[in-house]
Description:
The complex is a heterodimer.
Chain A: E1 2-11, E2 14-24, E3 28-33, H1 40-47, E4 54-59, E5 62-63, H2 69-73, E6 76-79, H3 91-96, H4 111-124, H5 139-152, E7 157-161, H6 169-184, E8 188-193, H7 196-202, E9 205-210, E10 213-218, H8 220-223, H9 226-233, E11 237-244, E12 247-254
Helix pairs in contact in A: 4-5, 5-6
Chain B: H1 4-27, H2 35-46, H3 55-89, H4 97-100, H5 102-115, H6 120-144, H7 150-174, H8 180-188, H9 197-216, H10 218-224, H11 228-233, H12 238-260, H13 266-278, H14 282-306, H15 314-337
Amino acid sequence: MLEVENLSVSYGKRKILHDINFSLSGGQSVCLLGKNGVGKTTLFRSLLNTLSYSGKVLIDENDSQKLSRNQLAQLLSYIPQNKGNTVDYSVFEMILMGTTPQLKAHRQPGEKERAQAQAAIDLLKINYLKESLFSELSGGEQQLVIIARSVAQQAKIILMDEPCANLDFGNQVLVLEMIRYLAAQGYLIFQSTHDPNHALQYADRVLIMEKGRLTAAGYPQKILTGQRLTTLYNTPIEVVELSIDGEKRFVCLAKKGTNHVGNL
Amino acid sequence: MLSTKKRHLILFLLGIFLLAAIVISGYLGKYPIQFEEYMSTILSRVFPAHFEATPEVSTILFKIRWPRIILAVLIGAGLSMSGATYQALFQNPMLSQDILGASQGAAFGAALGLFFNQSYEVVVLFSFVLGLGAVLLVLGLNRLIKSQSKLNMILIGMMVGSLFSSAVSFLKLIGDPTNTLPAITYWLMGSLSSVKMQDVYFAAPLILLGMLPIYFLRWQLNVMSLGEVEALSLGINVKVVRLILIASATLITATAVSISGLIGWVGLVIPHFARLLLGANYRYTIPATAFCGGVFLLIVDDFARLLTTSEIPIGILTAFIGAPVFIFLVAKNSRQLGRD
Lengths: 264, 340
């Protein structure tokens, strides 16, 4: 569904991404882990074709650089970090904007587009939010609305830039559960996250980025070992296995350790 | 949230209100006209068989009052629409052509045209080019200093605006005090007192030409107001759409400035008023902005010509109304402005 071949990005002389290669199929939730500034957002921007890169991005076997904005938007949608949007659109209007790629530039959304938006609302079961103002929702609800907008966009691949940033714990679970649900519906959800626990508990696949390179990819339980997380985040971390309601779960914890400021 | 039906109703009422304001404004004036005479003169244009026109009323209406009314409505509607466009494009509710420096750039262009005694066409062309230049300069500087806050763009706009204002002052300084200087000075204060039917034939098509793309692309304007990356990911060709919209908004501003000088605050205040009435969705807010702007400038112009024995430049009156409203908006938006 999404294939990346030899993707490199440079800003001037500085190389941000080095020869990234991966391939992801639909129906799964994928987490991208990495420290701040390793190029996660740059990777997303190049997948969205909003900055120039070398290499190839194939979406459903189409070269993304050869697609028009409209065509690309019908294959790939993007959810930016929640920045506390100040616009006063209603939830329904916000979701309706997802139908824009299917509209001619001078047209207004009509019956068909409204039905499409309603279908997205039904899929996410957020009918109770429909009439509210977007700016008055909680962070988690806002995130659900933006996810619904992506569903209304009818793109099967959804990129999410830290969908859980700035959310309280309950709202994080709300969003992560929704991501899992959509993956089960056949979507490919590709999110970046700062919390390895999200990856351990909710991801089907994990990609790890370090200094602009992809250094590991695979099943979360396999590659997210205490040792790897320790080197990745440069702080001692241990992964423990728990059994909750008879289900095996993995959790990672930072050890009280040598890196503490007091020990320097 | 308002239902679609209610929104259509409000738009319809605004349209009726505009029509009523036009009819009443035509009746008002220093030269007294009997109401029956007035109505039959208007109706004689539509149903010549049933109504009779009075010649002197006809002259006053169609040569003097009518052009002024048409232009007040068009300029009010146009300035408001272009203000709303700038606000949406740059995701900044405190912007308008005056604050971005577009009006001052356009004013300098027009003053340059007047200074060299050029024809109307050349005056508007100068005005458009320099207005566009001012906007692009603000955008360029904003990008250059990697500005993170909405306040910065306002400050840059004010800087560019005052630069062009000084340039106009310089033209006044070196202008011929017997004809160029008074022409520039009075025109700059903002007035519709000297417009003729000829101005309407010239300016109306240009203003309408600027309004059309904004009207048709108003759904895209909604999406653009979410920010560049989101608009791109929603399939909008941001560069092209933004250029079309900036050019349209600036064309309206330049034409308005060339005809009537600097009429400030309309472009800032009216879009807010329209949003209060109908919400943020530009699909409805753009037509509402046009109606409200038309009604507003028409009424203010009625006051400008009737309040005292000599004309008050309309720009002075709009400033009296706009400035207090601006402070109210600053208070309302103060928390947002610091953020990116």
